[in-house]
Amino acid sequence: MSDLQLNKILGAGLATGLVILGLGQLTGILFESEPPEKPGYAIAVVEDTGGGGEVADTPPDWGTVLPTADIAAGQAISAKCAGCHTFTQGGANGTGPNLFGVVGRKPGSHGGFAYSAPMTDFGAKNPVWDYDRLYLFLKAPGKDVSGTKMTFVGLKKPEERIAMIAYLHSLGSTLPIPAPKPAAAAPAAAAPAAAGTAAGAASATPGTPGAPAATPSATAAPAPVKK
Ligand code: HEC
């Protein structure tokens, strides 16, 4: 009888010990899983800068890239934002604010949306979402506006951001497309025909290899697009 009781007591003690061990391991697993998450984020950010090339990811010349940017591609990319944002005029705020007309809007100013303090502060320092600011923000929102509520990793590829911004610009933007910068427009005394040159460049180059006038502007125009 007392042997049986002893066995019970020992058994209970053993079971308790096992449970404690198990909990300890479980806790260890839970705690261990936390650190890898942060490096995961950091690595993604590092990849971002790598993806943009070793060269500093400076915004493109908007007057050159926007007229020929792929708005449809931008609309396709907006599927990544659609879980949090609407893009239609008068569309509802969700996890994020409605984005119709965001180009030219003051950051953190859309009616009825509770922005984070960092975004409101950002708006106090930056009066409008212009192309450059959107380009930098969309690359890594949490890096550009530290503490933002926008928990989106960002669009690492410059061409993705350009297409996205072109799409946003097509939605009630209050900012005009600027004139191409003098540096980019320099080879073109053809500045007035800039749009035509850019559009025709692709077909003109293979078609007329002998035309020397078209070649300098054709090579000069795509260069800033790739950067
Ligand atoms: C996980 C949800 C989420 C996703 C996905 C997301 N956003 Fe956001 N976005 C937010 C939130 C939340 C804010 C408000 C940020 C704040 O107040 O700090 C915001 C703010 C913004 C703003 C500033 C708006 C303003 O009125 O100042 C822009 C621009 C923006 N997002 C663009 C995008 C684009 C473009 C995408 C897709 C490529 C995207 N967001 C994806 C949640 C998201």
From TrEMBL:
What sections of the protein cross the membrane?
12-31
Keywords noted in UniProt: Electron transport, Heme, Iron, Membrane, Metal-binding, Transmembrane, Transmembrane helix, Transport
Q: Which residues form the Cytochrome c domain?
A: 69-172
Region listing for Disordered, in residue ranges: 196-227
Pfam families linked to this entry: Cytochrom_C (PF00034)
Query: Which superkingdom?
Result: Bacteria
InterPro entries reported for this sequence: Cyt_c-like_dom, Cyt_c-like_dom_sf, Cyt_c_1A/1B
- Keyword Metal-binding in the entry? The reply is yes
Its recorded name reads Cytochrome c
What is the source species?
Caulobacter ginsengisoli
